[in-house]
Amino acid sequence: MDFSFAEEQDMLRISARDFLAKECPKAKVRVMDTDESGYDPQMWRSMAELGWMGLIFPEEYGGMRGSFMDMVILMEEMGRNILPGPYFSTIALCALPLLEYGNIEQKTKFLPQIAKGQSIWTLALTESSGRCQASDVKLRASAEGTNYVLQGCKLFVTDAHVADYMLVVGRIGEGNNPEEGITLFIVNAKGPNVKTEMTPTIGGDRQFIVSFNGVVVPEDNILGKMGKGWDIVDFILQRAAVLKCAEISGACQAVLDITSSYAKERIQFDRPIGSFQAVQHKLANMLIDVEAVQYLLYQAAWGITIGSPSPWQISAAKIKANEVYQRICIEAIAVHGAIGYTMDHDIGLYYRRVKAAQFMAGDTNLHREVISVALGL
Fold it and tell me: Does residue 1 belong to any structural domain of this protein?
């Protein structure tokens, strides 16, 4: 494994950091928290012009032929700035499976739109249980001629209110195991009989209940093979978990930097609080946690980049990221004292997003099960 970055990747990180520092200061993050859409359309277009939407697409689809590790670098910088918007739902949850499993017609139609920032996508997977498991997919897809009719409800659909399309995970039938019969449908999010209802969250992320009441989907809008869609869901969850880890990694590094600077500047008893052993140990533990997340993240991302993903390494990274993000934010709040608990301080912006990040792309329990299977238990 070689975790060193190429010159082009270092340039990508620097340019992304500079762009986000200028275009997405914390003041804008706070504004977007209360904005109905939850993102800035102008900044979205600027990101597309920089090539971020089609970073790993081939050139024929308007892309830059980047690698998965390039996406990890970009997501780290987005996490550092807690960038609001539908980038993760569009690219991590939908564009990657479209690129991998879409047919020529689907790729030609949809990928250039995504690369240009002209369409927003999201994934509709979880239902009443809230779990990312095949046995919990109940939404029914019934054949009617050359079309399919979707009937059911999805929960925790991110950015559904601004999405142009959704990848909807449905069931066309039952089999010997729960994974049989799962099929992914490309659905017009603004089409008839698609209803969205916002779910309030403490993290400020845009989560929705989406109801499909007799939604007609043409056969041409099936992604991948009929009844074999769980392989695609597994593909999505693995890559999304790593990219969410990258976002968390960037956020943790930012929290550490903010807290370290504060400990050097805050004077108490005529000396910086960073000179006290209790504060030093907190910061030391935070640094250890940040480095641990980065190591597991790069290890998992490296496997995907070379075409040999390791499910248990991906799950280990997500578990560690879930635990570390909350622990680092709590330690940062403790070091900051009373101001750390206020929503006006930047630390609060990060801490509000901890739970949302933990459940995205599989919670800790799901990933522990993956590791248990790998251990032969």
Answer: no
**pLDDT at 340 (0 to 100):** 79
31 near 69, Cβ under 8 Å? no
Q: Which pTM value belongs to this model?
A: 0.95
Tens digit of pLDDT for each residue in 308-331?
Answer: 999 999 999 999 999 999 999 999
**43-51, Cβ contacts within 8 angstroms, sequence gap of 24 or more:** 43/85, 44/85, 44/86, 44/117, 45/117, 46/19, 47/87, 47/117, 48/115, 48/116, 48/117, 48/118, 49/117, 50/15, 50/19, 51/115
Contact at 8 Å (CB) between 58 and 206?
Answer: no
Percent over 90 (pLDDT), the chain: 88
Structure tokens at 146: 């050359």
% pLDDT > 70, the chain:
99
Same structural domain for residues 215 and 239? no
What's the CATH code of the domain at 103?
1.10.540.10
**Cα angle value 283/285/288 (rounded, 5°):** 110
pLDDT at 250 over 80: yes
Give the ranges where the chain is alpha helix by DSSP (H). 7-23, 26-34, 41-49, 68-80, 87, 96-101, 104-115, 230-265, 277-305, 311-336, 346-351, 354-359, 364-374
Beta-ladder partners of 166: 122, 187
Residues 145 and 89 both lie in one domain: no
Average pLDDT value for residue range 153-160:
96
Of 185, 205, 228, which residue constitutes the final position of a domain?
228
Determine, yes or no, domain membership for 284: yes
Structural domain for 280, as ranges: 231-374
Q: What DSSP letter does each residue of 261-284 carry, written as one string?
A: HHHHH-EETTEEGGGSHHHHHHHH
**Count of domains forming the chain:** 3
Beta carbons within 8 Å of 232's beta carbon, 6+ residues apart: 97, 100, 101, 184, 223, 224
Exposure string of 60-86, with b = 16+ CB inside 10 Å and e = fewer, is ebbbbebbbbbbbbbbbbbbbbbbbbb
Give the pLDDT band (50/70/90) at residue 377: confident
Mean pLDDT (whole number) for 176-204: 92
Instruction: Spell out a b/e string for 294-315, using b for 16 or more CB atoms within 10 Å of the CB, else e.
Output: bebbbbbbbbbbeeebbbebbb
